[in-house]
């Protein structure tokens, strides 16, 4: 017999064992969203700064690896494009919420 009855495994499926998500206040949600937004903008900025730094080093002759510079520049470009697209979607969602009738 391959399966063995384990009464504890059935208890794990009971509703009492399922944890309910923690309810957060609007202030906490606002703070969490603001922090996430700040982190995302910081990541975009870091990618741009790193790309600029490597491009300058290449122009000065301090870096010989053109591939690394180009990959860094492309990553920064994709990161910025993604941020712009997300910003557009957020603005669209905001406009849609504002059009809702309560």
Please, could you describe this protein's structure?
The protein is mostly helical and 102 residues long. Helices cover 73% and strands 0% of the residues. The protein is built from 3 helices and no strands. The chain has helices spanning 7-11, 26-60, 66-99. Helix 2 (26-60) packs antiparallel against helix 3 (66-99). The longest helix has 35 residues, at 26-60. It is elongated, with a radius of gyration of 24 Å.
Please report which band the strand proportion falls in: under 5%, 5-15%, 15-25%, 25-35%, 35-45% or over 45%.
under 5%
Tally of extended strands? 0
Low-confidence stretches: none
What Rg is obtained from the alpha carbons, in whole angstroms? 24 Å
Count of alpha/pi helices: 3
Determine the structural class based on helices, strands and strand pairing.
mainly alpha
Morphology: elongated
Fraction in helix = over 70%
Which properties best describe this structure?
102 residues, mainly alpha, 3 helices
Short description:
The protein has helices at residues 7-11, 26-60, 66-99. The chain is an all-alpha fold and 102 residues long.
């Amino acid at each position: 017999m391959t399966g063995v009855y384990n009464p504890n495994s059935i208890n794990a499926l009971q509703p009492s064992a399922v944890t309910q998500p923690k309810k957060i206040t609007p202030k906490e949600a606002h703070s969490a969203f603001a922090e996430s937004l700040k982190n995302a903008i910081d990541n975009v900025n870091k990618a741009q700064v790193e790309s600029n730094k490597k491009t300058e080093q290449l122009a000065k002759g301090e870096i010989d690896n053109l591939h690394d510079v180009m990959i860094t520049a492309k990553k920064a470009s994709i990161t910025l494009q993604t941020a712009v697209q997300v910003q557009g979607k957020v603005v669209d969602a905001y406009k849609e919420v504002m059009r809702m009738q309560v």
